[in-house]
Write a structure and sequence with these properties.
The chain has 76 residues and is of the alpha+beta class. 36% of the residues lie in helices and 16% in strands.
Amino acid sequence: MPSSVAEELKRHVEVFPPVEVELPWGKPGGQRRKFSLLLTTCFDNAVAVNTWNTYTWKPAPAEAVVVPPRAEGAKP
């Protein structure tokens, strides 16, 4: 990881420390295990992959002008 990214991550962790959450492991309803997560919802839950992909990850390249932005009204 580039040192610039490591420094930014360090600052993030100082402001927003990891949150310990309990998640099922291996399969739905499986044995629950605790994990420290850097990114959580405002309710300190794990972020759902579909929510993350649609509203955070996919828009990021367009925001950084790496790819063209999605047309207004297009499906996420």
